[in-house]
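User: Show me a protein chain along with its predicted structure.
Assistant: Here is one chain, sequence first, then structure tokens.
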Amino acid sequence: MKTQKAAVIGHPIGHTMSPFIQERLFGLSGIPMEYQVIDVPNLADALPKLRELDCFNITIPHKTGIIPYLEDMCESARLCGSVNTVKVTDGRLYGYTTDGAGAAVSLAVHGLDFCRRVLILGNGGAARAIAFQAAVNRPDFDISIAHREGSCDKAMALAGELADFARARGDKKFRITVMSYRELEDEPGKEYGLLVNTTSVGMYPEVKACPVSGRVVERCEAVFDAVFNPGETELLKLAKELRKKTVPGMGMLVCQAAYSHKIWYGTEFRNEDILQLIEEAKEELAVRFGGGT
């Protein structure tokens, strides 16, 4: 195979972990590549250069902006309204999202899944991708969405789209609950198989923050935090203290990248290689931030 021209695009993009992760994944697959970091202030101006690549990843703020320039996009990307992975064929761009699939693979690597009641903190892009992935993975799903004060409308809109998806598929017993964080904290006794934090609470530099109290975590069997910096958030520390299974955000970041290789080349990676790469990426992250995270 000829050397692949790959990249990650975004703006600004100085601290991306994509080159570190992708270079190791290409090494594991044995596919030769040149992986660039391309700062793209204006997406339209960058299109000629992007069409010369073989594939690329996308980060903020171009995950939705790329959509009008695509030849086609996968169903998951349509549901989420977001694209983070592009395959280039004869200069044509084909869009995919690996956010939901990356979360599912990360859970699977840690021996978990979406098969029980899921509690999602947040209602942004990551919440949307994970909610639809949970719905896709399980007919008659049970998903609760917790929102901050002032974002009820956004959470309700997501719930409505999930309900439309379930009805169109023919589900008859699905359940979607929308609540504020205050209602979640005061909720009596309801238990969850998986708590997923998709908010930025606890992210560097505000590393001492935690999105929910121990009262909520106690009612969850496992906790998945999409925040990857720091490697172990206050939420994950709390979950460990309460003897809950935990999944760090770096796992999702690595598994998203690994899933992009399945899209690009049909590559599958061994669980042990992915787990090792997650640990290596966490170590690299600590080095970049002075060991403080």
